[in-house]
Amino acid sequence: MAIVTPAKKQKLRTVLITGAAGSLAKRVIARLHGRYKVIAVDFRRKVETDAGIPSYKVEIHKRGFEDIFREHKIDAVLHLGRIFAHESDRSRRYNANVLGTKRLLELCTKYGVGQVLIHSTYMVYGASPYNPALLDEDHPLKASEATHDLVDAVEVESLANIFLWKHPELNITILRPCNVLGPGVRNTMSVLLSRRLVPVLIGFSPMMQFLHVDDMAEALVMAFEQNRPGIYNVAPDDYVAYQLAVEESGCRRLPIPSIPPALPRLWSRALNWNAFFPPYMVNFFKYPVIIDGRLFRQTFGWAPRRSFNDIFGYYRRQKAVGP
């Protein structure tokens, strides 16, 4: 009589997630935990995680980051961490975002990582009155021509593209989402809409796209699990005027003169508005930057589930509750 032995337990893939302290990364970790062995990394602080999730505080452009690759056999990397312009000075931001990404990709190549997913931003396209109605993934990245504050975002993509073609074994996917908003998100647009009084440029109300942080987390997980390398815009197929978004978020508008062009930047610097109305963003409050997300939606079968009311309603409720 043959003896039936239990099937050998399948080994879980190991996934390293950077920027683990962020709201988006936490949602991704929660979705992957249990189905994968997750490793959390952040350069700001050591993140408190569920049992079984190793957590590290380390600057990824420094030597100690390699120890994590030596200690764990990493199968995939989700690179979600970056410093925003309002969070640090330009030099530290460049070191963390650009040199850190370069170091990360070099380590992925050295240690045989089989998949890399990079979270970028729609801002790499730049805001210009000459932009087409819809920006697809082949459109030139012009953000660095208008401002030095977005140079690091464009350079990160340039690095990723170099590795994408030189090292196809890394299976690199680059996602360029529109404005991501919702609970816990601390990017520029979220900080702006969290305020009660919000600056708007007189004579301008460009169309904008918004995505709930839960929908973006689901997009990241789908892109990771389906593993179809390439560059993808991530956005819904609808959009809303900026000043309407301000109103729907429960904010009062503060009209700012838009001419001469340098005036809004001077106001921002003089009033120390860099956290929510930074000078480099002024053109994004003047000209529409609408990205075409059809390629991602069709390739991965993804569609956002949260409406604009879900997104803006969070900011309205926050103001109703009070400080």
Account of the protein in words:
There is one protein chain. This protein is α/β, with parallel strands linked by helices and 323 residues long. The chain has one domain: NAD(P)-binding Rossmann-like Domain (Rossmann fold, 3-Layer(aba) Sandwich). It has 11 helices and 13 strands. It has helices spanning 23-32, 65-71, 90-110, 143-146, 151-166, 188-193, 213-226, 242-248, 263-270, 294-300, 308-321; strands spanning 14-18, 37-42, 55-57, 76-79, 115-119, 172-177, 179-181, 197-201, 207-208, 210-212, 230-234, 240-241, 252-256. The strands form 4 sheets. A 7-stranded parallel sheet has the order 3-2-1-4-5-6-11, with helices on both faces. Helix 1 crosses helix 7 and helix 3 (90-110) runs parallel beside helix 5. The longest helix is centred in the first third of the chain and has 21 residues, at 90-110. The chain starts with 13 loop residues before the first strand and ends with a helix.
